[in-house]
Amino acid sequence: MTTQAEPFLTASIPGIGGVMRATHEDFQVEERPLYLPCGEGEHLYLSVTKRGLSTPDLVKNFSSVLGVKAQAIGVAGLKDARAVTTQMVSVQGVDQDRISRLAIDEQLLKVEVLGRHRNRLRTGHHAGNRFRLVIRDVASHAVESVPAVLAELSRRGVPNYFGPQRQGKSGDNHEVGAVLLHDARRRDRMSRTKRMWYLNSYQSYLFNHILARRIDRLDRLFVGDWAMKSQNGACFLVEDAEKEQIRADCFEISPTGILFGSRVSWAEGEPGLIEQAVVIEAGATQEALVAAAKDCGFRGERRALRVPLAELDWSLDGTTLTLTFALPPGAYATSVLREVMKPSAGF
Q: What is the pTM of this model?
């Protein structure tokens, strides 16, 4: 299966083009905490604002300056390097006084001590992100296109594609992941973190193709779908699509696609046929993926095909568009940008 641009949900509405990330300040992200530190424990929680610095590089910097292993530092999510971002960080086994070693500069803009907590901050331990994005030099028809696109995304949901960063600079991480599934010797030569990064890239590659097949029906439920509850992420098998569609229309639930693994359930009926077809086109089979996942030690999960667009606001000043919105954990702002801009290449 070849890599190609994912189809747009709002394909009938002209994109506005424009320039994104002319400066780091044009892409601002504020992570929403899932919880705040309780006040006691060996993990010190910090709120960190950074500019032009990736989260892995932030962790390396903290590890070196604070004199702790990288494994003692926890983050809830990976934030863009080409941006100004605020996120929570936990550091195990350090006194609050040691934080003063962190030098505030043009990359590390602010460090605020939040308090102590009993557990390390882990991936996914946040309530989503709020974005403030500036797009410059947009087309003259933006005044018509922007409200039309945003209205459609608000009504039907934002396509929950994985962003291109999952596939690395060369865009071929999924190819390495596909090889690793069946090459135990190569897997064993990698750290678990690196191995899982490539395998997750292959999962996301297949998911994006499943979503692309259902892009015009991403808000429709079918018998055999696994629907996800927006409130808690729990999934259930859809047996009465007409009945459940009422809940989907008010965003209480959404259809899902598979991130294959050893334990996750595959869809049935028409949704199941789509998942199987994508896997076959990729040169694999459902049985082979399940067996390989058992060998590699990951269970898999279901992922919603769409996410809600919340706290939306926008303004157009000449040829400069400013967008603010919130997305749940795991969703990419680029999924909103690409619908509005419709770029011919990736971000």
A: 0.92
Residue among 26, 57, 80, 183 flagged as catalytic: 80
Query: pLDDT 10s per residue in the chain (347 long)?
Result: 434 579 999 999 999 999 999 999 999 999 999 999 999 999 999 999 999 999 999 999 999 999 999 999 999 998 989 999 999 999 999 999 999 999 999 999 999 999 999 999 998 899 999 999 999 999 999 999 999 999 999 999 999 999 887 777 777 889 998 998 888 899 889 888 888 889 999 999 999 999 999 999 999 999 999 999 999 999 999 999 999 999 999 999 999 999 999 999 999 999 999 999 999 999 999 999 999 899 888 999 999 999 999 999 999 999 999 999 999 999 999 999 999 999 876 65
Q: Is 172 a catalytic residue?
A: no
CA distance 160 to 308: 10
Can you give the chain as a three-state secondary structure string?
Answer: CCCCCCCCCCCCCCCCCCEECCCHHHEEEEEEECCCCCCCCCEEEEEEEEECCCHHHHHHHHHHHHCCCHHHEEECCCCCCCCEEEEEEEEECCCHHHHHHCCCCCCEEEEEEEEEECCCCCCCCEEEEEEEEEEECCCCCHHHHHHHHHHHHHHHCEECCCCHHHHCCCCCHHHHHHHHCCCHHHHHCCCHHHHHHHHHHHHHHHHHHHHHHCHHHCCCCCCCCEEEECCCCCEEECCCHHHHHHHHHCCCEEEEEEECCCCCCCCCHHHHHHHHHHHHHCCCCHHHHHHHHHHHCCCCEEEECEECCEEEEEEEECCEEEEEEEECCCCCCHHHHHHHHCCCCCC
